[in-house]
Amino acid sequence: MLHYPKKILYKRLTMIKEYTDGVCSTITEVSAPRRIAFDLLRAVIIKKMRLSDALIDHSGNAKLSDRDRNFARSLVANSLRRLGHIDQVINICLTRPLPMKASIVRDVLRIAATELLLLNIPPYATIHSAVNLVRSQGEDKFAKLTNAVLRRIDRDGRSVINTLPAFHALPKWLTKNLRQTYGDDIAIAIAIAMQQQPMLLDITVNTDHAYWARTLKAKILPTGTLRRQMNGRIDRLIGFAEGAWWVQNAAAAIPVQLLGNVSGKTVVDLCAAPGGKTAQLAARLANVIAVDQAPQRVKQIKNNLDRLQLTAKCIIADATKWQPQFPIDSLLLDAPCSATGLIRRHPDIPWLKNERDVTKMAAIQDQLLNAAFSMVRPGGMIIFSTCSLLREEGSKRIEALFSRNPYVTRKPITANEIGGLSELLNEDGDLLTRPDHLANYGGIDGFYACRLIKNKNFNRIL
């Protein structure tokens, strides 16, 4: 039989009591990654900050080791990715609803439930840290409840979360829209795809796809994009410093291809930042005019072009008001939107947006389409695109354009132009990619694009 000194025995008994009733605590510290994950979650949910901005803004994040920083980000990203599911599990494990003013406690439970159910962190470490985090926020009266609820979640939560419908992970406004637009089967497939974190790097190269695929250990997708596993620092990969390639999601690289041969033509890239499409156009020898209203984002475009040794005329301007000096040949409008097509990579998006934002964005997209029409010459081409899954920011904007402007027509996209992938086209011949598409390759962002032609007999600007 083992005999412990009194001090050690007392410490062990105290720690056991803390675990079982959430009242006594010998350790008041909360691990830095957990505290930062809690702060980041509240920055997104309460302050409506983008997670990427919150990561930069949080002073403690930079002080973490790479391992702890990755853990903190994984905690909050996984929590956001399955937030609807996690909330349902928490509600089931509560004996009575949390008061509205207890948002701090709910967010602590969300982070801890993520550890227990999604990351398989040992329950003692998770529950102990969560209780101390609640206390550190001045919510001592909820310490016992936190302990009890998390013990129930650890015991019963997995059987609950595994039976929940996939689209219950998303906010109700988005679930409703996806089900109405695509039907339940596709909505479920989209929701499942959104829950998978893509550890993939998509790359656009100037030339010699086969060489760079071998060099970077990448696959060539049917659309021409190179894709490899995400590991290590991007700027340390061969060819990055030399400007041989740039990072660009496969879906985002398609719209430029729809313009055809742009060599020697004047092409305007509206809402151009961060500049991936500008780089594509410049690499294809177009005379590119990149327009964006944010000075910092235009600076980013210029920096990217410098690294790639490409040139384009960059202009800081409101795209709804700016006009070129003469009618141009082609125009690419990648309009601001809800970005619902990017949720796989940015799980904060559903919790930052709502139906009012979609309506607001749709009005801006209409203004941008009107402006784009006025910029191109008769017979000129417009590519309208959004990284959205919602019809309100895609095909409905084109329907609205046709209803108010009889001088523009659709030029359907063919499967041959996109690597033979007919499943990426809708019934009108527009591009419509979804996160569940190209599953054998690891998926793809949601994206919409329509190709438009300004009628040749149009001799005046409306």
UniProtKB/TrEMBL annotation:
EC number from the UniProt entry: 2.1.1.-
Keywords recorded for this protein, A-Z: Methyltransferase, RNA-binding, S-adenosyl-L-methionine, Transferase
Domain of life: Bacteria
Biological process terms in GO annotation: regulation of DNA-templated transcription; RNA methylation
SUPFAM superfamilies noted in UniProt: NusB-like, S-adenosyl-L-methionine-dependent methyltransferases
PROSITE patterns linked to this entry: SAM_MT_RSMB_NOP
Chain sites annotated for binding S-adenosyl-L-methionine: C271, A272, A273, P274, G275, G276, K277, D292, D318, D334
Coiled coil location: none
Occurrences of domain SAM-dependent MTase RsmB/NOP-type (ranges): 162-455
GO MF annotation, one: RNA methyltransferase activity
Name by which UniProt lists this protein: Ribosomal RNA small subunit methyltransferase B
Active site (UniProt): C387
Family the entry assigns: Belongs to the class I-like SAM-binding methyltransferase superfamily. RsmB/NOP family.
One family name in Pfam for this protein: NusB
Species of provenance: Candidatus Endolissoclinum faulkneri L2
Lineage: Bacteria, Pseudomonadati, Pseudomonadota, Alphaproteobacteria, Rhodospirillales
Gene: sun
